[in-house]
Give the backbone structure.
Amino acid sequence: MNITIIGTQWGDEGKGKVVDLLAESADVIVRFQGGHNAGHTLVINGVVYKLSLLPSGIVRPGKISVIGNGVVIDPEHLIKEMGQLAEKGIKINPDNLYIADNCCLILPLHSELDRALEEAKGVNKIGTTGRGIGPAYEDKVARRAIRVSDLKNPEYLKERLENLLVYHNALRRGLGQPEIKLNDVLKFLTDLAPKITPFIKPVWYELDKLQTAGKKILFEGAQGTLLDVDHGTYPFVTSSNTIAAQAQAGCGLGYTKSYKLGITKAYTTRVGSGPFPTELENEIGQHIQKKGHEFGTVTSRIRRCGWFDAVLVRQACKLNGIDGIALMKLDVLEELDSLKICVGYELDGKKFDYFPACPQAQTRIKPIYEEIAGWKSTTAGVRKFDDLPVNAQKYVKRLEELVGVKIALISTSPERDDSIILDNKL
Ligand code: GDP
Ligand code: IMO
Ligand code: MG
């Protein structure tokens, strides 16, 4: 069965580890949204791999990795990431990496604009990764983006760039930035084109062939449901749809069925600004941050930490149609005396069993907690459910009950094999 990996919180749930683990029994791994704002960490026998744009399956020999049309590609970054992996002995060639011909590009002008707009927002900034994701998606929807396939046709590329620069140079003049010269950006792209064009394919067509041949596909989501541009904590979100329904739109494989696995941290974290009802701005939050090494993979920012929010995860599971949860980083909680779980919200005397859409309400809303005893014994590296301390088992079972979705996998360390698989569909 195909599997779709989706973050059910604000990203960094541990998707990379799970994709890498499950890629063993998959043939094809597909990224379908986002870009190099993602930071997916894999730890294989002590060796750490950090992937932002390449699908996490790339580290396994014999697998096909696919970048679907829903992804925005910074070509310079792509070349850099391929080089970093090559240094670690990973072989990347047109037989194991396919890039959709209809992917849109992120250009240096996008990351410059991303950073300039954030600066202009001051205290109201979103806290983006500064990688040009938002401006690149804006250009895509506005129908002025440069697509990967344009790199194969210099004349058409020039025409498209002329059109793009009319908009961007007007914007840059307004922001007091120097204009961009057509020939500079044209040269930049034509110089790097030969390194990208060999990987270009009609991905929807290739995926259809692979699926028809019985190949197993793993869809690798980036970010998380609460960062989804429609369903997340707007405007403090990323600029793509991150939910499972995007998997098909973002690669063009129309006919497909998959098991949707919701990757979920045993607590909550968030990088960047925005509402976070269960945030712990105290020593417990600091303890989780330190013990969980909660630093952003892409930006090295400290991740904000808080209690598990069962309301938000339940909502995320419904939005995605999650079939099973992979509960990550359970080991991080092992030293706590007791733990709290958010089971509902209260706002102005009214109870809520969902997260209201209005940012002001999201900021003011108060969590209703249930308290549960800690386990205070080592869980790192445990590989059997029965070997978990009884209170840790109780915590897991309570989360399952509150979220209403089966816990299909439990992860107890960053290592690939420190995982407890509870659902034989995985
Ligand atoms: P992603 O963006 O969802 O792929 O997650 P990140 O890689 O950004 O962040 C997850 C971090 O937690 C990485 O450093 C992982 O190596 C690490 N990690 C994953 N699973 C576990 C686990 O079960 N326990 C611990 N302690 N760390 C984990
Ligand atoms: P992975 O795939 C966590 C956050 C940024 C910011 C907001 C918008 O590793 O889980 P953007 O640069 O996308 O315009 O930033 O989204 N963000 C992430 N947070 N994990 C990620 O990816 C993220 N990608 C973007 O911090 O708040
Ligand atoms: Mg990450």
